[in-house]
Amino acid sequence: MKLSKTSLTGLLVAAGLSTAQAQTVVHITGSTAFRAATVNAITHILKPGFTYGYAGTSFTGANQAIFTGTTITNSIPVIIKTSWTGSVAGVQTVSQQLPVSTWLTNTTPQSVSGTPGAPAVYDSPAVPEVDMDDGVQSTTPFPTPVLVAQNVGAVCFKWVASKGAPAGLTNMTPNTVQALWLNGSLPLALFTGVPADETSSIYAIGRDPDSGTRDTAFSESGVGPFTTVVQYYPTNASGAVISRTAAGPIAGQELVPAETVDGIFFDVGDGGYSSGGDLAVAMEQTTAAIGGYYVTYLGISDSVTALGGGAVELGWNGVRFSDTAVQEGQYTFWAFEHLCYRSNYGTVDANGKTVADLLATQIKNVDAIAAGELLSSMHVTRAIEGGLVTPNY
Amino acid sequence: MASLLVAGSLSLAQGLHAQTVFTYADRDLLLSFRKTGADGGTTGPNDFEVDIGQASIYYGATPGSTVTISQYSTSQLAGAFDSINDLSWSVGGCVPVGDTGSPSVALKTLWITSPRYLDPSIPGDVWVRNSSYTQGGTSAKMSSILNNGVFYSGTVPADPNYNTAHAIAVPVGSDHEYGYYMGAAGNYGNTFQGNVENTTPAGFTTNDAPSRSDLYELDPDATGTQPAGTHLGYFELRTDGSMVFVAGSTSTPPPAPKLSLTVTTALNTISFASTVGATYTLYYTNSAGLSAPTATWPAWPVTLTGDGTVQSFQVVSTDANRFYRVSAH
Asked: Rounded to an integer, what distance in angstroms lies between the CA atom of residue A154 and that of residue A337?
């Protein structure tokens, strides 16, 4: 009798472990420029009835989200958590197994229609398994250990001027981008060709070095992904940096203070916004207080936000963004997006890897359109961000 | 003070890297070495970068004085390359955007070398001052070299020779090396007006001539006339790998003097047409010392200051043969 009790207890413990092991959790991090495509794809690989919640008010712009459901293919019960830290940071955290501290807890309010306003209550820090990378790992400061990377689409970007920019400011070139970001500012006349604009300025504003958008912008323009640049922060009347949580109007500006990102020191001016969403909000502000205008680089999703708020889209080498211009090679401000995980992921968590592969396929076949172009629509290719664009036929 | 509230996303990130050993401060000058093979010599696997301290050490030096570059040793340099023949080197520094030092030196001021290509006694090209925006490009490249040196230092273990507080060796081909930002043309990635690198000749270690490069201070110019920069002196890489800086007048360096020699019994008179303000130093040796590098020749204890007239050193010598050279700075 006594032996039987002991055996029963043992069986219950074993069953509990089995249940815990069956719950697959996938942590996804990386590109803010590609988050809209990724979260859309997540909703498309889960069976109807799944629930989700997210931080803030914008589902596709949320820095964190949680999804609970079962995959349509293979019927894998899964919790998927996203926390977007930037493409470069994503490469670092996944390849080098560094924990991220902003995963929404399982008790986050969720519903089948999506529950906004998730409280900032997080799990204990956990290492992400999956990264969305704008480009290739070798161009980041973290080229090893080499991750398994699946090309899932072309992520596209735009040069954008701040609200109220003059009509003559229409285009960026490698020369103006390099001169602007190496100096931090340039006379407006270099962009408009109007002598009277020599007394007005264009200021550089942008992302921090965790960002794949920055990496692509500086690779594409010839600045160089590791070159020290000069960027500003716009500030409001309280002295806070303009963001989604610190409203405008702009009352002044400052050089981005020196900071340490990923354990790396970045000098005064070399840092920037950690979120494309916050940067987009800054571009919606008028800039009379600084005696000039801002120019920046944004992913498609964030550019929609900024342009909707009054920012101005610029061309690149005289060409405006369009799907056709990207697909045929006239517009070159884009990179291939990669879904990445460690080579041993299938060994560590076979179901997790299957979910990641399902997600990659879904993005590649359908949802990449939210951040750029489907691979199947591209008639050009390139080996690396900033590399030569050539026909793929 | 502005602030940006962002939810913390990374933790323990600093634990990823080894301790950063190599550091710098704004306005430090960076001495950089590399072997590109461009002149037919060998190539080096690493660039060797040395922080030689604040620019004020050099622009504040008393004219005629010598500053020994002590932030690296000859053994460190020798170990970094297969030899110091065909070795390219430069010195550069700037006042970067965001600098909070004395405003008496303007933002985007550059300190930068001009190589003496053929004859170490003949000054190199006179660098001119350009606009703040033009010099800003070079300033950014200089900052990039320093910041990437610091980054690389944090990715490798400390090393008593090649990852120290003042010196770092960075692999060629890395996006973090000096050469990546300097470019093949030695002009800071096409942001500067000319080649700032000097390259030692194939027989450098066995001949008697040092490798010299003039140091210029280039304050940003707002006139658009590209006036000449201020000559501060010259760096001298000696054949044993050591380096000194010889402070000069704050004008264009004087031309090398053309010497004439008269001998009256034991009295040797070395004469030359002098340049106003230049300082002349006499060096000498005898037949036994002729094979030694000229940099090791003894200096005569008396120097002369040029006044535009013919000036002379007078030396009593009992050597059967005596050889002289006169430096001007």
From this structure: 6
C-alpha–C-alpha distance, residues A89 and A267, integer Å: 18
- Asked if B9's CB is within 8 angstroms of A274's CB, the reply is yes
Question: A295, A328, A361 — which closes off a domain?
Answer: A328
Are A163 and A219 contained in the same domain? yes
The answer to whether residue A40 is domain-embedded is yes
DSSP state of B329: -
pTM of the prediction?
0.79
CA atoms of A206 and A233, how far apart (whole Å)? 8
Q: Which residue has the tokens 């390219």?
A: B88
Q: Tell me the residue type at A332.
A: T
pLDDT of residue B256: 79
The pLDDT mean for chain A works out to: 92
ipTM reported for the complex, 2 dp? 0.77
Examine the domain organization and report whether A164 and A244 are in the same domain.
yes
Shortest Cα–Cα distance, A15 to chain B (Å): 34
Q: Smallest Cα–Cα separation from B212: which of B89, B315, B99? A: B89
> Both A135 and A166 in a single domain?
no
Residues A162 and A75 occupy one common structural domain: no
For chain A positions 315-374, those within 8 Å of chain B (CB to CB) are none
What's the distance, Cα to Cα, between the start and end of chain B in Å?
A: 48
**C-alpha distances in Å from residue B90, one per residue of B52, B107, B208, B212:** 12, 21, 21, 10
Distance CA A128, CA A342 (A): 10
Strands B167-171 and B46-54 come out as antiparallel
Q: Which residue of A has its CA nearest to B4?
A: A241
Cα angle vertex B202, ends B200, B205, to 5°? 70
Domain presence at residue A356 = yes
Q: Specify the higher pLDDT residue, B254 or A296.
A: A296
pLDDT digits 0-9 by tens, A256-277: 999 876 667 788 999 999 889 9
Question: Domain range for residue A116?
Answer: 24-154+336-391
CB contact under 8 A, B7 and A89: no
Q: Which residue ranges make up each domain of chain B?
A: 17-247, 260-328
Contact A227 B141 (CB under 8 A): yes
A179 and A272 together in one domain: yes
User: A380 vs A123, A329, A336, CA distance in Å?
Assistant: 42, 6, 11
How many CB atoms are closer than 10 A to CB B308? 11
Identify the H or E element spanning B93. strand B88-94
A245 secondary structure, DSSP code: T
* A251 and chain B in contact, CB less than 8 A: no
Say how far apart CA B305 and CA B274 lie, in whole Å: 8
